[in-house]
Amino acid sequence: MKFPERFAALPEYAFPRLRALLDHHEAGGEPVSMTIGEPTHPFPDWVAEVLASHLAGFNRYPPNEGTPELRTAVAGWVKRRYGAVLDPATQICNVNGSREALFNACLAVSPERKAGQRPFVLVPNPFYQVYAVAAVASEADPVYVPATAATGFLPDYAALPAETLDRVTVAYLCSPANPQGAVASLDYWLELLALAEKHDFKIFADECYSEIWRTAPPPGALEALVRSGADPERVVVFNSLSKRSNLPGARSGFVAGGPETMARIKQLRSYNGAPVPLPLQAVSTRAWSDETHVIANQALYAEKYALADEVFAGAQGYQPPEGGFFLWLPVEDGEAAALKLWTQTGVRVLPGAYLSRDTDSGNPGKGYIRVALVAPKDELKRGLIRLRDCLYG
Ligand SMILES: Cc1ncc(COP(=O)(O)O)c(C=O)c1O
């Protein structure tokens, strides 16, 4: 028996690819990892206490969509953050981190055919890799749309031909963007919503970096929905406690959207989902209800942004990220730069092309490296200075 060809055709995932590039070379210094976007700031003190007081919950199967308390806490956060009113009963579902939801929601809502043809799913290029795999699994064709310096590092979906847009079922948009750090303005969201209304597709807003920002809280898709009065079924929002609360290991996030769309997502999840354990749902309830730890976390990222600005002051092509915790640094060739950096300094970064796809107009990630600002500050400083001196010296 054969394996499905549509998955076999996928490129190797970024991290095994990086290991294959670097691991048979010796590190040229004490290793500093700036590859994976795994937050290392402390999670709130009260996590242990909340977990301990809910241990009995491990004795029970957790509710698939999240407890009513958790969904109400998420609705409260969404109202405070975006001014949007969501019904916790019909519009919010707890998920095991946003990655699984970004995948499963596409399966749940993208139809087999649109306008009598195989559908398209819009994917910014470069991008968080699950979007393309979700499209392929949904039997849609991903359309990779450049999100480069020329377009403000966000995709210009409106520039696609009308006949392409008419076949679109889902458009992914990440803001703040991984890897580029660009933030979609309210106008950007409003224009995208108008495009979605015109061509009848859904926007999948990946907002898991929404609380990691430099100068002002990034506007969200739900905020644009409130402003525009567009059909609530147009927007599906994904967020998570991984970055906001430094709880990537808790595997807890949410997906929110219009009641009809959410009914489809929840239906599929009731068959294939692994609900978040009850003690972790209790932690999540508290986390979405508390802003103090988020503000403390933002202060730590502010120090890291300032450090990066200081180290790269005057470096050609350095653009401070507006949000998220990655630097997207221009180099001649990302793979060659990552290899040079590792063998000469021990600093490990990700070649941009591992996060992007070849298109007719080239590969928009090829001339970049992605640098995660997640290490403790002293280690981060050492790493950034070595990186600057090696690649921009
Ligand atoms: C852009 C983007 N979306 C989604 C995720 C998934 O995060 P989680 O599943 O931990 O919520 C990540 C994780 O790094 C990410 O970078």
TrEMBL record:
<dbReference type="InterPro" id="IPR015422">
    <property type="entry name" value="PyrdxlP-dep_Trfase_small"/>
</dbReference>
<dbReference type="InterPro" id="IPR015424">
    <property type="entry name" value="PyrdxlP-dep_Trfase"/>
</dbReference>
<dbReference type="InterPro" id="IPR004839">
    <property type="entry name" value="Aminotransferase_I/II_large"/>
</dbReference>
<dbReference type="Pfam" id="PF00155">
    <property type="entry name" value="Aminotran_1_2"/>
</dbReference>
<dbReference type="InterPro" id="IPR050881">
    <property type="entry name" value="LL-DAP_aminotransferase"/>
</dbReference>
<dbReference type="GO" id="GO:0008483">
    <property type="term" value="F:transaminase activity"/>
</dbReference>
<dbReference type="InterPro" id="IPR015421">
    <property type="entry name" value="PyrdxlP-dep_Trfase_major"/>
</dbReference>
<feature type="domain" description="Aminotransferase class I/classII large">
    <location>
        <begin position="33"/>
        <end position="381"/>
    </location>
</feature>
<dbReference type="GO" id="GO:0030170">
    <property type="term" value="F:pyridoxal phosphate binding"/>
</dbReference>
<protein>
    <submittedName>
        <fullName>Aspartate aminotransferase</fullName>
    </submittedName>
</protein>
<keyword id="KW-0808">Transferase</keyword>
<keyword id="KW-0032">Aminotransferase</keyword>
